[in-house]
UniProtKB/TrEMBL annotation:
Any one GO biological process: response to metal ion
Protein name as catalogued: Cytochrome C biogenesis protein
Domain of life: Bacteria
Family statement drawn from the similarity comment of this UniProt entry: Belongs to the CutA family.
Pfam families in alphabetical order: CutA1 (PF03091)
Organism expressing this protein natively: Vibrio navarrensis
MF terms (GO), sorted A to Z: copper ion binding
């Protein structure tokens, strides 16, 4: 049973490079910084250096613990192919206790 259901988060990042995506996923999972990483194809529209841009990207949805976020952010920023990658944390307010327990059991203990 999970003691603090608010101890978990989802981290989002995007990339437009298949090799970079695989490198990030492998690093996060092998280092136990994440229990699960889901990927989905997206079309991104954004402003970069004053220009409106569009890109086909992959969104990574990373399930982890909030206390691991600094290491997740550092790992993604070190590996990422973008100058300014999206790396954002969304707090999980509540969730199915067996699933949250699974995240806890499959991530690095600090």
């Amino acid at each position: 049973m999970v003691d603090n259901k608010q101890a978990f988060c989802v981290v989002l990042t995007t990339t437009n490079n298949e090799a970079n995506k695989n490198q990030i996923i492998k690093a996060l999972l092998t280092q136990k910084l994440a229990a699960c990483v889901q990927e989905m194809a997206i079309n991104s529209h954004y402003v970069w250096q004053g220009e409106v841009c569009q890109d086909v990207e992959t969104l990574l949805v990373i399930k982890t613990r909030k206390d691991l976020y600094p290491q997740v952010e550092e790992q993604i920023s070190q590996l990422h192919n973008y100058e300014v990658p999206q790396i954002v944390q969304l707090e999980i307010q509540d969730g199915f206790n067996p699933y949250l327990s699974w995240i806890a059991a499959n991530t690095l203990e600090l």
